[in-house]
Amino acid sequence: MATNPYQESGSWKPPPPRSPDVNPQYVHHLTPNPPPEISHSIPKRKGVKQRCIKFTAAAVISLLLLLLVAGVLLGYYYSSPCVHGRQCGDGGCVWESQWCDGVMDCRAGQDEANCVRVHGSRFLLQIYSTQSKNWRTVCYKGWSDLHGRAGCQHIGYSKGTYFKSGPQQIDSSDGFVIVKSNYKPDESLLQQVVLSSTCPNNSAVTLLCTDCGSGVNSTRATGIQPASLGAWPWQVSLQVAGSHRCGGAIISPYWIVTTAHCVASVSTPGDWAVYAGVVESLGTLFNPSYSVSRVIAHEGYDSKTHRSDIALMKLSKPLDHTVSSNIGPVCLPNVGVNTTNNQKGWLTQFSGTINGDSGSPYLMEAEVFLMETADCNSTMVYNGRISQDMFCAKGVETSDNMCRTDSGGLLVSLKDGLWWLIGDSIWGQDCIEPNQPGVYSNITFYLDWMFQQMRKHQDD
Fold first, then answer.
1. pLDDT tens by residue, 364-377
2. CA-CA distance, 135 to 121, in Å (whole number)?
3. Which terminus of the chain has a smaller tally of CB atoms within 10 A, N or C?
4. Residue 174 scores a pLDDT above 90
5. Catalytic residue among 129, 407, 425, 441
6. Is there a domain that residue 236 lies in?
7. 187 and 126 share a domain?
């Protein structure tokens, strides 16, 4: 039996430890420190460069967008009439608050031109307020004839052209303007009023610059007939070299309304003579002639289309209608005095005959009624030639036809006891066919132009 050399006799001893080359089964290893990070310098510079390029591109695109927006806004600003206010009409602009403030800011005064008006057949005086953006009736409290004269002059009537002012009780939900306590002749009327929500007794100002629209004493028989002397006191005969050329209407002591085609070929004021209070050529022997200082035809007059066929004449000295009941102005149609279809009126014009034969011009009259524009523009009549500044009228009796007789025939209408000038004849030579009514310029359409010219030449 083999014996264990490591076992002593009589007892057992463990064997001696092995050599160090014997490793234990489980050993706990410590994680070594990570190696230092290696700096890659070249890729880092590349990333910064890319970011700079992106930022620069974004900045350039943003700048281009801003320039584009600015260009659009500037283009809109210069192409728009007035972004921040109102256009003067000559390319200039003023702030909204500068309009109708009594101070002329536009070079030609457009900002102060149409700020005062009379309204309706009661001639209520109104002033436009840019603060409230509406027309306000003037309260009668504190009003005087001095204010009245200033109001007429602001509208366009010449100095000294003033008839009367008065009170009129009204109901107004749009507020009033009231004159300040002390009248200042050197200030505009617009600078001497303040806004007010109330007015004592609701008493408003009426303003008549001329004693117009009265004194008619015609027989008013139907059909065409000779007019009686004084029946139409505003009718005048406009003559060149002693011969009747066309008719006209007195609208103030200084101003006559006629047609542009009447004065187109004779525009020199000295060639004209005006006779008032006459119905026939013999009347010129017993009435003075009035010389003309200015002839103003509408700048838009077109002889082919007959558009803007209106003109004004200013007399060298005023007509004195107080010396004769046969002379007096007709009323211009205030805002609110509207014409309607089938409305009746009276046409007056000088005819070359009374009984159908040739002879000296004599003032004739005929009752007419206004036609629908659509009917007048039909293919059977004028085939679309009637524009918004014209209207048609036809005789009450189908046989009535004065179209071949006179240029500048006047069409007036009676409303609320006054006669209003609503048109003047512009197609005097064309009414020769059975279905050809007379064509007239619409005076209401040209009111602003007329007052503009009157203001412009007040001091001539």
1. 999 999 999 999 99
2. 17
3. N
4. no
5. 407
6. yes
7. yes
